[in-house]
Design brief:
about 700 residues, mainly alpha, Serine Threonine Protein Phosphatase 5, Tetratricopeptide repeat, Rossmann fold, five-stranded parallel beta sheet, two-stranded antiparallel ribbon, 29 helices, about 60% helix
Length: about 700
């Protein structure tokens, strides 16, 4: 049921905030302080161990100085094999040039958004917009809309944008800021030949020379052996192929065996090359792995099973099946060994090391028993935490999957302190959660696959990552079908339909709802099953309303309302009455809308539902104004404004302020109308809506 439609606002011109038409907006502060200027800086702090790349930096500096105006942003493409240090160089350059680009530094890793080799570029654009301070509810829904939003947000700005792990130029071009005073640093394994039409400069990044590799070792390991045995130090650096990712591991390995001569350590690695044919860089990783404790080695082998880019202590504990304290020790051991990179948000594993860890796992556990068990534990733990977060964030609502009970010895639950923290956790873990849906389905854990989709519905309503949620709910549909569990088969199809229609895929959405309604006919007569049937009918009504079929939408809402009346579900009756009133309003039947919305508003007050009281009151106010009764509308709309501010909903506050402006115009109060509109525009500017050509708020 669509308490889940809480972010869905109608699109009639009299209620839409046309933020894209702000034009020359002049804000007079009347003594109030102007908002603090937001300057993003999304790359990690500088590392003391950065070494060399002088030629590359000089080439980039020349390109920056010589970049002509009116040619679009300068694109610097850093190309080279994995582990060569492209990202570190990009970060280093961005930090060094930050003063020249005072509007901020943005970062997006395309591999974090890549599924089956393909990046959903719309989500990447959304990441950049979020970095610029655009709140999720103000993001445009379509790829084209987000691209225009990015262009407007970045026009005249001086930004550095770091785009990591691009594979083709087509992934990069939509991410370019509109300003020719911005710099885009792209890292890629190979040349991006399809960057034609952009001001692009390719800067190949090769291996470190032996001299600089030894110096990097010296930054990593303050060890007299490097000076005492220079030939061995050079051999070690050369054996690492000049790859900073390998040199870091080698340095930590050398540091671990302080009593052995450097020559002996290098000889051990060289023997692996001659006796087993293993390249020395692989031997370096093997040696670092061999020096780990049993728990550290096991965690290393299991980390590739985690589907998210960031590893945190509770996740490591789930993989190991131990307490967080022991898992934390194992993570720190891997970091000290150079096998993990510690970041403020958690630990990350380099792609090369992830591949090595997976090879070690297959050697140690050829049957995959260890890996299968870890994946199973991970999916169940994420399902429990996501279910708990969903319950806290959305309250009791229609769900069909139970929250798994913890077993003795399980890793402790995340200690959510309230709704905001639960929602933040869902967003921070979204890559892992979406990955767990796919992983559960691949492993035949079909119930877990569709059950994980239920909390992702709550997350989607606030964070429209369309590619991820569409993929997840398609998987949820397939999983429910495999189980032949009717309620899930119906529910997954309904929840898949909404992101489809929001992307304009109306026929696809309608087909899923047709199958959902067919399946609903086989449901029983229990109250939960009847409620699910009513919800499915409601979804079809919402789709018809989205497509402008007001008559068809009203018929569906009437049918849904009748079911709710039969089963005595007061809230369901309230919601359908509200939807009927809103449909009448949008179709121009103002008197009918007043009657329906007044009824819905009275029911919301009687049921003490604060949010629905505000929503119904606001829509009733609009209907009264359009019916020529502005004086009756005014107190309802002002009450809605107080409610929006109390809840901190900026989108609601904007649309209510716009409605107050319309009311003032109706009464001939031009100055009051402009005050309300100015306040709405200011909020829109702060939230990023001014970046679009017509915000769907």
């Amino acid at each position: 049921m669509a308490e889940e439609t809480r972010n869905s606002l109608d699109g009639r011109a009299e209620a839409v905030v046309q933020a894209g038409r702000i034009g020359e907006f002049h804000q007079h502060w009347h003594g109030a302080a102007a908002p603090v200027r937001f300057v993003p800086f999304q790359i990690p702090p500088a590392l003391a161990r950065f070494e060399d790349r002088t030629d590359e930096q000089e080439r980039i500096s020349r390109a920056v100085e010589e970049h002509p105006a009116h040619r679009g942003p300068l694109v610097v493409a850093l190309t080279g094999i994995g582990g060569i240090g492209k990202t570190a160089l990009g970060f280093h350059v961005a930090r060094g040039l930050a003063d020249r680009y005072p509007d901020g530094v943005l970062y997006v890793d395309l591999d974090d958004l890549r599924r089956d080799g393909v990046v959903e570029v719309s989500d990447a654009v959304g990441e950049l917009l979020t970095g610029l301070g655009v709140l999720p509810e103000w993001l445009e829904k379509s790829f084209g809309g987000r691209t225009k939003q990015l262009w407007t947000s970045t026009r005249e700005k001086r930004l550095v944008v770091v785009v990591d792990n691009a594979r083709v130029g087509a992934e990069v071009i939509p991410l370019l800021p509109a300003s020719d005073r911005s710099l885009v640093i792209v890292t890629s394994h190979g040349a991006l030949y399809d960057l034609e039409g952009t001001a692009a400069v390719e800067v190949p990044v090769g291996p470190l020379s032996a001299e600089h590799a030894v110096r990097l070792l010296g930054h990593l390991v303050d060890d007299p052996r490097l000076t005492a045995e220079p030939a061995a130090a050079v051999d070690l650096a050369r054996g690492c192929g000049g790859l900073p990712a390998a040199i870091r591991v080698a340095g930590q390995w050398v540091r671990k065996y302080r009593r052995r001569s450097l020559s002996r350590l290098v000889a051990e690695l060289t023997s692996e090359l001659h006796t087993k044919g293993i390249p020395m860089v692989e031997a370096v990783w093997d040696a670092a792995y061999g020096a780990l404790s049993s728990e550290g080695a096991r965690l290393y082998r299991l980390l590739p099973q985690h589907p998210g880019p960031v590893i945190e202590e509770p996740v490591a504990a789930v993989l190991l099946g131990c307490g967080p304290g022991l898992a934390g020790d194992a993570l720190e051991e891997l970091e000290h060994a150079g096998l993990l990179d510690g970041r403020p948000e958690g630990w990350r594993m380099h792609g090369l090391l992830r591949g090595h860890a997976d090879r070690m796992a297959r050697q140690q556990d050829p049957g995959g028993v260890e890996r299968v068990g870890a994946r199973r534990s991970l999916v169940v733990w994420y399902r429990r935490q996501a279910g708990r977060a969903d319950l806290l964030a959305a309250g009791a609502r229609m769900t069909f999957a139970r929250i798994p009970e913890p077993a003795p010895g399980d890793v402790p639950d995340i200690g959510f302190t309230g709704k905001p923290e639960a929602l933040r956790w869902l967003e921070s873990q979204r890559h892992a959660l979406f990955g767990c849906v796919r992983m559960a389905f691949e492993d035949g854990q079909y119930e877990d696959a569709w059950a994980l989709c239920e909390p992702l519905w709550t997350h989607f309503l606030d964070h429209p990552h369309y590619a991820d949620v569409t993929d997840a709910f398609r998987t949820g549909v397939a999983a429910a079908d495999r189980m032949e569990y009717l309620p899930a088969m119906v529910r997954m199809r309904c929840q898949l339909a909404r992101p489809l229609w929001e992307q304009g895929l109306y026929e696809d959405a309608a087909e899923h709802l047709r199958h959902a309604l067919n399946a609903a006919e086989a449901l029983g007569g229990s109250v939960p099953e009847r409620k699910l049937t009513a919800s499915t009918v409601e979804f079809r009504g919402l789709l018809k309303a989205e497509a402008g079929d007001w008559t068809g939408a009203a018929a569906e809402f009437e049918a849904s309302k009748a079911i709710h009346e039969e089963i005595g579900n007061e809230y369901g009756v309230l919601l359908q009455t509200y939807l009927l009133g809103r449909t009448s309003l949008r179709s121009g039947q103002y008197q009918e809308a007043v009657a329906l919305l007044r009824c819905a508003h009275d029911m919301a007050c009687d049921q003490e539902r604060e949010r629905m009281t505000a929503r119904t009151g606001f829509e009733l106010g609009r209907a009264l104004r359009l019916s020529g009764r502005p004086e009756e509308a005014d107190p309802l709309v002002r009450a809605a404004l107080e409610g929006a501010r109390r809840r901190g909903s900026r989108t609601e506050e904007v649309r209510v302020l716009e409605e107050l402006a319309e009311l003032a115009d109706t009464r001939g109060e031009a100055e009051a109308a402009e005050v309300h509109r100015s306040a709405a525009r200011l909020i829109a500017l702060e939230c990023g809506a001014a970046a679009s050509e017509g915000q769907n708020s």
